Amino acid sequence: SKISPPSSDSVTASTLPLTYFDTLWLKFPPSERVFFYQITDLTFDLFNSVILPKLADSLSLTLLHYLPLAGHIMWPADSAKPAIYYFPDQNDGVSFTVAESDADFSHLSGNNGNREAVEFHHLTPQ
């Protein structure tokens, strides 16, 4: 799903020009983060009705303070360099994916040796 900053009359379009050092990273694919949470006695209903909405609301409120992070990179033809543009009326936001796995939690999240990146691929969005 996509999480956007809360709508507000005070939120306007914004632009954040990229620096030379930012543009060096454009040739690399974006990094993908996987966060693990082990919660005992967690039910599907509790997660969907309480925890997930709180995570989504927190992310939405945080994006309000960091609007460029909710935007997208564009390089207009009339510009010398690319920039991050945020347009509230174009449904800008960030992707938010929740995945469930039956993989060994202790193995994937622990400090018990090296793990291959391929072990995490099924947890990241396609």
UniProtKB/TrEMBL annotation:
<keyword id="KW-0808">Transferase</keyword>
<dbReference type="GO" id="GO:0016747">
    <property type="term" value="F:acyltransferase activity, transferring groups other than amino-acyl groups"/>
</dbReference>
<dbReference type="Pfam" id="PF02458">
    <property type="entry name" value="Transferase"/>
</dbReference>
<protein>
    <submittedName>
        <fullName>Uncharacterized protein</fullName>
    </submittedName>
</protein>
<dbReference type="InterPro" id="IPR051504">
    <property type="entry name" value="Plant_metabolite_acyltrans"/>
</dbReference>
<dbReference type="InterPro" id="IPR023213">
    <property type="entry name" value="CAT-like_dom_sf"/>
</dbReference>
<keyword id="KW-0012">Acyltransferase</keyword>
